[in-house]
Amino acid sequence: MADISILDLVRVTDATDARAALDNARDLAGHAEGWGYRRFWVAEHHNMPGIASAATSVVLAHIAAGTSTIRIGAGGIMLPNHAPIVVAEQFGTLATLFPGRIDLGLGRAPGTDQLTVRALRRSLTDPDDFPQDVLELQAYFAPVQPGQRVQAVPAAGTRVPLWILGSSTYGAQVAAEFGLPYAFASHFAPDQLMQALAIYRARFKPSAQLARPHAMIGVNIIAADSDDRARRLATTQQMSFANLLRGTRGLSQRPIDDIDTYWSPAEKAQASSMLARSIIGSPATVTAGIAALLAETAADELMIVSDIYDHHDRLRSFQLIAEAATVTRARLVA
């Protein structure tokens, strides 16, 4: 049975502020630790009022300080936005403060619009530099070599594990070539999932970090005590996707009774395509959905997004998901 992990969006709602979003993320991570989740990741997003994780390493320190065993990481850092040495310094510091618990997922996209990209880094790099940047970053986490004149302090020797993230086959090729674990963003870009997994597994080269392929897939799962309740909770995420398609970046919104009153047929078609891999429903529905997804993909790990407006409903969803995963695990063993 695959491990289960959490990707939290650190959502700011129309009833909370950024501080509440950060504290809710820390609270969720503490619960997730007890429910058996392996990792708790947040992602770098900029210029988005509804997401409070732009200063990703700082957010991770807040979350890690409220937990004791669950792995904490970035899913991910958008490497073209940063000099690799700065990322190494930040995550080397996290690894020093929380040894053995820090992950660093790396993405090639900027994670924002082009105007914000220019504000982030005025001397823009070519995205095709991504593989070289990954190797540079990896070197900063290795022990200092004789004659090495530039060090990322205190990153040297921490060997923070790197992950390659992607929503296309490009990331699969990089992860396979470098012998790194691979996470596919099927929670918002599912079209090339199976092709990317096949490429990654077929081309994987063992490395010092990883002896065999480890494939994680992102999946939206919204669980509640009934299918109807879960479908209503899911309208928050559906509205967020509709807003993205409109170019609107607002706060997380309360669920509504009928999503078709909110989005147009064209928005529905496009958003539904992006959310096609979602599992939404009661514990029985979620259990069946997880089993089917694992049977299809043979994923080593599920990175679960449960984008729900109310914090208590979100806690309940992740608790039910953990229970569903336990049931699935027991059935596979039996």
Automatic annotation (TrEMBL):
MF terms (GO), sorted A to Z: oxidoreductase activity, acting on paired donors, with incorporation or reduction of molecular oxygen
Pfam family, any one: Bac_luciferase
GO cellular component: cytosol
InterPro entries: Bact_Lucif_Oxidored, CmoO-like, Luciferase-like_dom, Luciferase-like_sf
CDD domains: Flavin_utilizing_monoxygenases
Superkingdom of origin organism: Bacteria
Domain Luciferase-like: 5-300
Assigned protein family: To bacterial alkanal monooxygenase alpha and beta chains.
Protein known as: Luciferase-like monooxygenase
Naturally occurring in which organism (per UniProt): Polymorphobacter multimanifer
